């Protein structure tokens, strides 16, 4: 299972890189960039939660005008952290219950596997939104984001 989850994180990064390459060519990239920045922030928040450390002052919806980070490099760093974290686990660790607080201070607990799946599904949700935004801007050729396409191209 851990090897599969690591592959999903690599897929997630690959698709984010492909989309961001297109976003950089857009006339009006702000909303798409904000969604990418939000996805990254959420990955970081959930990573801290998985480690059971406070999320800190990560802004979940950063303002694009205040961003001077290389989102692709930050996604690469985030993915590397997740992969390193996963490499130190055993399959049975995925059932561990993690205690954390949400952004308004409410306490929750979730299995580690559920947190990991949340991170991956959250990215899929927002990439679909980004695809719609890019199409509305007249981008006709979007990258193929299907997981099966990614896996077939690994071989």
Structure description:
The chain has one domain (2-154): dinb family like domain (Four Helix Bundle (Hemerythrin (Met), subunit A)). The chain is globular. The protein contains five helices and two strands; from the N terminus they run αααββαα. By secondary structure, the chain is mainly alpha-helical. A hairpin with a 5-residue loop joins strand 1 (97-101) and strand 2 (107-111). Strands 1-2 form a two-stranded antiparallel ribbon. Helix 1 packs antiparallel against helix 3 (71-87), helix 2 (30-50) packs parallel to helix 3 (71-87) and helix 2 (30-50) packs antiparallel against helix 4.
Write a compact overview of the structure shown.
60% of the residues lie in helices and 6% in strands. It is mainly alpha-helical.
Radius of gyration: 16 Å
* Distance between the ends: 20 Å
Can you say what the CATH homologous superfamily is? dinb family like domain
Overall geometric form: globular
> Main sheet: which strands, in order across?
1-2
The H-and-E topology, N to C, reads as HHHEEHH
Instruction: Please give the count of helices.
Output: 5
Fraction of residues in β-strands: 5-15%
Reading off the top of the CATH hierarchy, the class is best stated as Mainly Alpha
The share of residues in helices is 55-70%
Mean pLDDT across the residues is: 93
Q: How many DSSP-defined strands?
A: 2
Q: Write down the domain tally.
A: 1
Task: Describe the main β-sheet briefly.
Answer: 2 strands, antiparallel
**How is the CATH topology named?**
Four Helix Bundle (Hemerythrin (Met), subunit A)
CATH architecture: Up-down Bundle
pLDDT < 50 stretches: none
The secondary-structure class comes to mainly alpha
């Amino acid at each position: 299972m851990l090897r599969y989850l690591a592959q999903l994180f690599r897929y997630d990064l690959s698709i984010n890189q492909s989309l961001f390459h297109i976003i950089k060519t857009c006339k009006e990239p702000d909303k798409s960039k904000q969604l990418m920045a939000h996805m990254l922030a959420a990955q970081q928040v959930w990573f801290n939660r998985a480690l059971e450390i406070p999320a800190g002052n990560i802004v979940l919806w950063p303002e694009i005008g205040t961003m001077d980070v290389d989102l692709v490099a930050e996604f690469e760093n985030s993915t590397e952290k997740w992969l390193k974290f996963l490499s130190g686990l055993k399959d049975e660790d995925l059932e561990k219950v993690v205690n954390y607080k949400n952004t308004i201070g409410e306490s929750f607990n979730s299995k580690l596997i559920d947190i990991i799946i949340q991170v991956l599904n959250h990215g899929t949700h927002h990439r679909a939104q980004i695809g719609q935004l890019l199409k509305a801007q007249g981008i006709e050729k979007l990258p193929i984001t299907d997981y099966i396409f990614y896996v077939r191209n690994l071989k």
